[in-house]
């Protein structure tokens, strides 16, 4: 993946060195759920935040001197370039459809940070997107987990993660998240898990759409090996794989992000077609 000559953007919110202690605020979430890429064990981040509300108290946000490492600086630069490339791709695709594209922000933080409507985010949640403030939240230390814990090696693995979270932003802009969230109170947990899987797989698809257009619309150059790495990264965070790693077995009824095969398939379908209209996971009979 050749990215060094790529455009740097202006939508990075660098919060490293700022700490919110253990403060947790859920006010204003209004039923909006935090949609996280499938690096957790099928846990619902909204529930996690609610559980933590009664457990955690502490000081407010403080700011101190933060000493970055050369590797972290490189990762920040990389994330900036990838985010800017998603802006270029989606701005062009929305323009072709006669629409404007509202660019999301990416907040880079360490350990924990306040969000604009999704409570208090923490590193162990993994990267996530908050619809309330249209922001992708990322702790750069997650890159080590990608390669070490999940076995998703190569630079493109982190690019896939960012593109997936931007995929949730696309869903937010198109009104998909509002529709799926409205179903939450009307369905059983098992039934809603299927909706969650469809939502996550569509975000994987949108990550593939971004990859399809990168070489034509940005200064980043991808090879097919990068796409293979993306498929491996998607497979590495499938619910079945993660649960089998942790427990020795998997429970399909608890899946919230999709199997390894499904995640790799939808990412690849997005890459192959490059057509946002081909990603209607909610109408796929195999996912019902």
Task: Tell me what you see in this structure.
The protein has 288 residues and is an alpha/beta fold. It has one domain. The chain is built from 9 helices and 9 strands. The strands form 3 sheets. Strands 1-5-9-8-3 form a 5-stranded mixed sheet, covered by helices on one side. Strands 2-4 form a two-stranded antiparallel sheet. A hairpin with a 4-residue loop joins strand 8 (128-130) and strand 9. The longest helix is centred in the last third of the chain and has 29 residues, at 189-217. The protein is globular and about 45 Å long. Residues 20-62 have low confidence and may be disordered. It is a single-pass membrane protein.
Primary descriptors:
9 strands, alpha/beta, globular, single chain, 9% strand
Radius of gyration: 18 Å
How would you sum up the global shape? globular
The assigned structural class equals alpha/beta
Mean pLDDT: 85
How far apart, in Å, are the first and last alpha carbons?
36 Å
Write the element-wise H/E pattern from the N-terminal end onward: EEEHEHEEEEEHHHHHHH
Assign a percent range to the helix content: 40-55%
Overall tally of structural domains = 1
Mind summarizing the main beta sheet?
A: 5 strands, mixed
> Low-confidence stretches at least 5 residues in length (pLDDT < 50)?
20-62
**What is the percentage of strand-forming residues?**
5-15%
Q: How are the strands of the largest sheet arranged? A: 1-5-9-8-3
The count of strands amounts to: 9
* Tally of helical segments: 9
Protein name: Metalloprotease
Transmembrane segments: 24-43
Keywords: Membrane, Transmembrane, Transmembrane helix
Membrane topology: Single-pass membrane protein
């Amino acid at each position: 993946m050749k990215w060094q000559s790529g455009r740097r953007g202006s939508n990075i919110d660098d919060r490293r060195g700022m700490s919110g202690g253990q403060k947790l605020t859920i006010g204003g979430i209004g039923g909006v759920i935090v949609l996280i890429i499938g690096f957790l064990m099928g846990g619902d981040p909204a529930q996690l935040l609610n559980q933590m509300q009664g457990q955690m108290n502490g000081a407010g946000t403080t700011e101190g001197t933060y000493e970055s490492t050369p590797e972290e600086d490189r990762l920040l630069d990389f994330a900036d370039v990838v985010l800017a490339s998603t802006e270029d791709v989606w701005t062009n695709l929305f323009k072709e459809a006669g629409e404007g594209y509202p660019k999301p922000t990416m907040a880079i933080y360490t350990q924990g940070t306040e969000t604009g409507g999704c409570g208090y985010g923490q590193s162990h949640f993994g990267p996530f997107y908050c619809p309330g403030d249209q922001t992708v939240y990322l702790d750069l230390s997650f890159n080590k987990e990608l390669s070490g814990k999940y076995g998703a090696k190569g630079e493109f693995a982190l690019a896939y993660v960012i593109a997936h979270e931007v995929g949730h932003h696309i869903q937010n802009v198109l009104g998909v998240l509002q529709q799926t969230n409205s179903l939450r109170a009307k369905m059983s947990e098992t039934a809603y898990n299927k909706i969650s899987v469809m939502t996550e797989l569509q975000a994987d698809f949108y990550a593939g759409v971004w990859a399809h257009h990168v070489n034509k619309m940005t200064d980043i150059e991808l090879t097919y090996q990068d796409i293979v790495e993306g498929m491996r990264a998607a497979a590495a965070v499938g619910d079945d794989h993660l649960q089998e790693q942790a427990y020795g077995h998997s429970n399909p009824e608890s899946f919230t992000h999709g199997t390894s095969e499904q995640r790799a398939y939808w990412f690849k379908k997005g890459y192959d077609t490059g057509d946002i209209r081909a990603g209607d996971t909610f109408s796929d009979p195999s996912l019902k």
